[in-house]
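Action item from last meeting closed. Structure (462 res):
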């Protein structure tokens, strides 16, 4: 059995890789070792990885033995990266910080599930310190770059995972989304990105990270591979099979409103390319037979309540490190603000008014289409020379279309929608009521089939 050249394996999807490993057409050891070579070659340019596993060949050999024994592994031999916020027993998951030094006692449940499904974990990807910002930069990890334009950030906090998948280093990578950290990097890196309803994907050993606003998940280059990954994470939810279901025409609303714009404008300017991405996606859904209309959306105090919960959570995360004195200025400032806002947490945990405002706005609507981000990814190193408060304010402006849904618990799917005038990806966000991931993925699959994005690859890292 001859291993295929690395350039053929680079863009092979997860489902096809697993199918060919199960059939005996691909050697999982060769597949894993090719992924490690790609990671090493791209690391000086992209800096997507915190560390590379030293037992990749052993993992892949174990997968080969399981396949030979007759196990039907959905991710057989698929190279996969994990975000460096996910625990692996015996290893330090740094979350991009010098302040975290203690190895984990147990492995995160999502990591256990992908390994049980046959994935080969090739390493851990970069994240900003304590996952607090929508770019992936830290004193410990340096600057992670976007494979579409290495002068720009891939986003954050799952930026390393998004960059790794977009650059073809691995077909799948795990991440987490507490305020847009999967959907945002997916948008800036030209990938689909699913934020599942909080509580559906297990967060163990973490209990209610960020007061319950975090949902773990990950990245793939196609909607079908995204569904495959989430079926594994959810323990067999049938999402991939649902891609073939006929849901009938969906009632779709398009809006450019965002929580950060009211009551005080704070969202930052919306670039025309990103507004056009939302409108274009609405037009494409209409052409596919869905009912589409424009609606205004009201969010109440969702943005303010998210901010309170985010900053209080930052304080908790800083205090939980081994050396709080070593955290960087941005995290330290967020923790101090969280201490000041802690008395407001009970108010921020009450989301009834915001739920009613959104549900009233979207009465009779199945799916809301908005921009995913308001702007192109900023240059790497943008925070340099800025005060921590200015950095946090800029970060908040970038996720105004994302964070209210973490607060409210509504799932969302980023879908690529072309490129801007500089050739960088743009995307729209599909959002639905809790538990409607199958509908979101079905619509995403329809959009992908009608307007394929999988044949466009970035040059960086190749």
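Sequence:
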């Amino acid at each position: 059995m001859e291993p295929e050249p690395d350039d053929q394996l680079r863009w092979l999807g997860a489902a096809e890789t697993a199918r060919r490993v199960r059939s005996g057409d691909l050697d999982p050891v060769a597949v894993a070792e090719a992924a490690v070579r790609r990671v090493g070659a791209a690391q000086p340019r992209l800096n997507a990885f915190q560390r590379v596993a030293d037992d990749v060949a052993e993992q892949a050999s174990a997968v080969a033995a399981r396949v030979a024994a007759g196990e039907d592994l959905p991710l057989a031999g698929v190279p996969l990266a994990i975000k460096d916020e996910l625990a692996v027993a015996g290893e330090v998951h740094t979350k991009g910080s010098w302040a975290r030094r203690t190895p984990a006692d147990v492995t995160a449940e999502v990591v256990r599930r992908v390994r049980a499904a046959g994935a080969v974990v090739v390493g851990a990807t970069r994240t900003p310190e304590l996952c607090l910002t929508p770019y992936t930069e830290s004193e410990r990890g340096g600057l992670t770059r976007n494979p579409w334009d290495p002068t720009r950030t891939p986003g954050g906090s799952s930026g390393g995972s998004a960059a790794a998948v977009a650059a073809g280093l691995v077909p799948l990578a795990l991440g987490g989304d507490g305020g847009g950290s999967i959907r945002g990097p997916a948008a800036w890196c030209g990938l689909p990105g699913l934020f599942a309803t909080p509580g559906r994907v297990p967060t163990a050993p973490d209990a209610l990270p960020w007061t319950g606003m975090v949902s773990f998940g990950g990245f793939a280059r196609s909607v079908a591979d995204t569904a495959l990954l989430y079926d594994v994470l959810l323990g067999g939810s049938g999402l991939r099979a649902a891609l073939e279901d006929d849901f009938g025409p969906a009632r779709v609303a398009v809006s450019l409103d965002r929580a950060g714009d009211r009551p005080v404008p704070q969202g930052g300017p919306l670039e025309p390319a990103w507004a056009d991405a939302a409108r274009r996606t609405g037009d494409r859904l209409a052409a596919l037979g869905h009912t589409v209309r424009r609606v205004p959306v009201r969010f109440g105090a969702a943005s303010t309540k998210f901010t309170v919960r985010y900053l209080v959570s930052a304080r908790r995360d800083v205090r939980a490190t081994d050396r709080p004195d070593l955290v960087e200025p941005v995290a330290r400032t967020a923790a101090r603000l969280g201490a000041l806002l802690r008395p407001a947490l009970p108010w921020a945990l009450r989301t009834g008014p915001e739920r009613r405002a959104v549900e009233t706005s979207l009465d009779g609507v199945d799916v809301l289409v908005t921009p995913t981000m308001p702007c192109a990814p900023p240059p790497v190193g943008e925070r340099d020379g800025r005060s921590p408060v200015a950095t946090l304010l800029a970060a908040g402006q970038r996720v105004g279309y994302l964070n209210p849904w973490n607060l409210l618990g509504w799932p969302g799917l980023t879908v690529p929608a072309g490129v801007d005038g500089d050739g960088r990806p743009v995307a729209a966000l599909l959002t639905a009521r809790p538990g409607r991931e199958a509908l979101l993925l079905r619509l995403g699959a329809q959009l992908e089939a009608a307007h394929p994005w999988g044949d466009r690859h970035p040059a960086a890292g190749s």
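Note appended to the action item: The first helix runs from residue 6 to 10.
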